[in-house]
Amino acid sequence: RRLYFDTHALVCLLEENGFTTQQSEVIVSALVKIMNTNLDMIYKDMVTKVQQEIALQQVMSHIGGVKKDMIILEKSEFSALRSENEKIKLELQQIKKQVTDEITKVRADNKLNLNLEKSRVKELVSFGYHAQQDRALTQTDRKIDTEVADLKTMLESHKLDNIKYLAG
Fold first, then answer.
1. Each residue of 51-93: pLDDT tens digit?
2. d(C-alpha 57, C-alpha 52), whole Å
3. pLDDT tens by residue, 78-136
4. Cα–Cα distance measured from residue 116 to residue 137, given in angstroms and rounded to the nearest whole number
């Protein structure tokens, strides 16, 4: 280690100011020991360039590994989302088919009810019950209107469900 001051000049300066040679040398020796101890403490906390390069290479290696892991994870997540999307599409097609079947059933039931009501009205007309005929016709119209409104409501509900899914 190098000291950045002249120890002999310091001894001479102390002697000129009233210290003996032995006292001056002891003081300078103590100062050198203190400075060496302080430098040792400072050097313990420092790293060399080689150590710094090694640490930098290790960090860069870890970052590269993390990048690879992230890419693999991203690809696996994407494929999982794709397969889940396909499952949902199949479920949506099944639901659409069920809705179509239900609508067909309701239409057939309504036609059957309508035909039954028509035949009943015809019977009433043939017996000359005009008042009953009017009431029956009104009830039939109400039933038809109710069934049509129910069908429209069900259709709109299923449309909204499909739109919600597609929008999601």
1. 889 999 999 999 999 999 888 888 888 888 888 889 999 999 9
2. 9
3. 888 888 889 999 999 999 999 999 999 999 999 999 999 888 888 776 766 566 667 87
4. 12
Task: Say which residue the tokens 């309701």 belong to.
Answer: 106
Residues with Cβ within 8 Å of 95's Cβ and at least 6 positions away in sequence, in order, are 158, 161, 162
